[in-house]
Amino acid sequence: MLLSSIYTFLLCFTSCFFFKVSCSTSEFRSDGDYLLGGLFALHEIDSVTPVFTPETTECVCISLKSHFIYMLSTLMKFAVEEINNSTTLLPNVSLGYEIFDLCSNTRNFHSVLNFISKNVFSSLSKVNYGATSYVLSDKLQYPSFVRTNPSNKDLIEMIIHIIRWFGWNWVAFLGSQDDYSTDGLKLFNKYINNTGICLAYQEGLILNANYSLTVKKIDKLNINVIVIFALKEYASKIIKAAIANNIQDKVWIASHSWAMNQQLPREPGIRKIGTIIGIAERLLSLPGFNEYVYSKAKGTADAGHNVRAKSEVQNKSETCNQDCDYCSLMTAEEIINESPTHSFAIYSAIYTIAHALHKVLQCDMNKCSKNTIAKPYMLLEQIKKLNFSLNGQQVKYDENYDPIIHYAIVLWRTNVNPPQFEIVGTYDKLPEITLTINKTLMTWHNNGSVPFSNCSVECKAGYSRQPEGFHSCCFTCKKCPRNRDPYTCFPCAESEWSDEGSTTCKTRSVVYPQFTEIPSIIVMISAAWLIILLFAVFCVFAYNYDTPVVKSAGGSMCFLMLASLILSSVSVFFFFGKPTSVFCLLRNVIFTFFFTVCISCLTVRSFQIVCVFKMAAQFPKVYSLWVKHNGQWLFIAFSSFIHFISCVVWITVNPVKLIADTLTPQDKLLLICERGNPITLIIVMFISWFLGFLCLLFSYMGRDLPKNCNEAKSITFSLILYYLTWIAYFTVCRFRLFGVMLPQF
C-alpha cells in the first residue's frame, strides 16, 4: 500500500541463472551473470476485474502513461550497459536486466514472483528509487529495504528550511489523499513545532475535487506561500485552477515529484500566479545518456508516420507486461526532454548494486572472484558501508539504508521561451545540514523583494507580541518593559538582559575575579607576603623554641596559631580565576575552620593573661586544675572539634556550589559560590564570632595590667580590627538571608 502512490522500483538478482519469460523482447531483457529486475508503470489501467488465481493482467487498449516512465526504464538499461563496459568495477562479471510493466499494482506480480522464485536459496534485496514514505526507514518492519531517493522526512525538513530561510510563517499545505501526501503532512505538522511557522491551511485532495474552491480559500486567508506536496497529477490540477481563478503573486513550493515537470511551465498564464520553487536532484543530466538514447531510439520525427503507427497499435491487444508497442514510436528528443526526476536515483541504484557486488565478489582492477556466491544479505551488509562518488555526487547510506542527500533548489523561469529550470540553491545533509540559496539568482514576481507571507507584521523595536487568535503567528503589538522578551513580554532568561524597548534579549557577559586583574594581583601579592612573613616567624620561633621569649609568647601554641594563619591565608588564592565546585569548597572551609582555630588560641591566650594576674590569687584551686590538666589545650581541642563538626554539617546538608549572580549589573553575570544552607552557615559563623567576643572580653579585662605585659592590649586591638572588618564588609557588600547570597569572606 505504501508503494501504491509512487513509481516502484525493485532490484533483485539471481546468481548465474537465466530463464525465459513468454513474449519477452530484447528491449526489456538482457542476459548477464547477475540479473536485475525493474518495475516501471509504462501503462495505466482504469479498473481491475477481481480474480481468484494469480495471473498476468492483459494490458489491452491501454494508453501509454508517459514518456517519462519509458525514459526511466531506458536509464536503467543505460546504467547496466555502462557498468558492463567498465573494466574496473565488475571486470569479468556482467549484469543483465529483466524489466516489467507495472500497469496494475495488484495484478502484475505473476511475472515478478516467477522471476524471484527461480532462485529459492536467495532472499530478496530491494533498492527503490521512488518510495519516500518515512515508515520504510523502520528496519524492524522493512529490514532489506534500500532506497536511493530521500525519505519524506528529509524532503519535509528541506522545505521547512526553505520557508525559514525567507522568513515566512503563514503557509498552506496541499496534498492528495494517498500515502505520499498523508505522510508528508504528518511530518510537516511535526517538524514545524517550535520553528515559528504556522500551518494556516491544509487539505488532502482527490482528482475530482473542487480545486477552484481550494485556491480561493487560500487567497482569502492572505496566504502567499503554498506547499504542494503531491504527485504531478494533483499538482497540475492545483496550478491550473490557480491560473483559471486569477490567483496572483503567490510562492509555490513544489515537492520533488513535480518540481521538474516539463509540461506545467508551458501552461498559458502561469507567470501571473507568482514564483515556483522546487526541490530536485542536484545532478539534472547524466553524461553519455543523450548519446545512448540517440543510438537506441526507434521513433522518427515524422509526425504523420507516428500517427499512422499509433493507429495500428490501438488495434492490437497487449497481452504481456513485457510488451510496449508505443515505446518504439518515441523519438530520442521526446525521451531526452522528459523530466529528470528520479534519474539519478535510478542511476545510483544500479551503481549501488554494482559497487556492493564489487565488494562481495572481492574484485580488483582486473577480475572478480567467481567462486563466491553472492547472496542478497551479503549485498545489504556492503550497501551500508558504501561511500563512493558518482558523477561528482557522493553516494552513501545511513543505518536505515536511506541515502545521504545532496539536493538542489530550482527556480522555474517561466518568463523565457522555452521555460527553464535554474538551480538557485543547494541542500546538504553532511557533514551537517546546510542550506544555501543564492539571493542574486532569485527573481521574484514582485520585482526583487522577498514576498511577504506572515500572519502579522513584525512588531517595532520596544513592542511585544500579544497573541491574537488560534495561531501563534498572529499577534498585536504592545510596548515591553525592560528585561523582557520582545515577542511575549515574558522575562528574559537569567543569563540574558535587555533594555526597555529592546527587540532582543542579549546574553550577559560572564565575569569573575581574574588572576591577571590589577586588584587580584595586589591581593595575591599581599597574601603571599603575609604567608612568607608568617612562615619566617614560624621558623624563627622554631629555632629559638627553648628561649624564654618564645615560651612567654605561648610556646607550642604559637606554632598552632601561625600554622592556622598560614593555611587561612592560602584560601585567598581560591577566590580568583573561574570558580569551580572544588574551589568554592576550599575557599570557604579552609578559611573558616583554620581562622577559628587561630581565634580559639587567642581566646585561651587572653584568658591565661587575665588568670595569671587576677584569677590565680582569687581562685587558686581552679587555676591549679587548669594548669595541671592543660586546660588551654582542652579548650582549643573542644572548640575546634565543635567548629569542625559544624563545618561538616554545613557542607553536607546543602553543599557549597557554584551559582550565577543575576543581581549584578544587568549586562553581566557574576559567577560566585553559594553559601549553602543559611542556618548551618550562621552556626559556623556564630562559633567564630562568639570565640572572638570571648577573646575581646578577656583581653579588655587585662587593659590595666602592667605596661610590660601589653600582649592583652595587642590582642584587643587585633580583635577590634577583626570586627570592624566584618562591619565594613556588611556595610559595603550586598547580602541576603535564608537561601540567598550571604557575605563573601
Question: Would you give an account of this structure?
Answer:
The chain is of the alpha/beta class and 745 residues long. It is 39% helix and 15% strand. The protein has 19 helices and 22 strands. The protein has an eight-stranded mixed β-sheet with strand order 7-6-8-9-10-13-14-15, sandwiched between helices. A three-stranded mixed β-sheet has the order 1-3-2, with helices on both faces.
Topology of this structure?
Elements: E1 29-30, E2 34-40, H1 67-84, E3 95-101, H2 110-117, E4 126-128, E5 145-147, H3 152-165, E6 170-176, H4 179-191, E7 198-205, H5 211-220, E8 225-228, H6 232-244, E9 250-254, E10 274-281, H7 289-296, H8 303-314, H9 332-336, H10 343-360, H11 376-385, E11 387-390, E12 393-396, E13 406-413, E14 420-428, E15 434-437, E16 463-467, E17 475-479, E18 496-497, E19 506-507, E20 509-511, H12 518-543, H13 548-553, H14 556-570, H15 581-618, H16 620-628, H17 631-653, E21 658-661, E22 668-673, H18 678-701, H19 711-732
Parallel strand pairs: 2-3, 4-5, 6-7, 6-8, 8-9, 9-10, 20-22
Antiparallel strand pairs: 1-3, 10-13, 11-12, 13-14, 14-15, 16-17, 18-19, 21-22
Transmembrane segments: 521-545, 557-577, 589-613, 633-653, 679-700, 720-742
Keywords: Cell membrane, G-protein coupled receptor, Glycoprotein, Membrane, Receptor, Signal, Transducer, Transmembrane, Transmembrane helix
Domain G-protein coupled receptors family 3 profile: 519-732
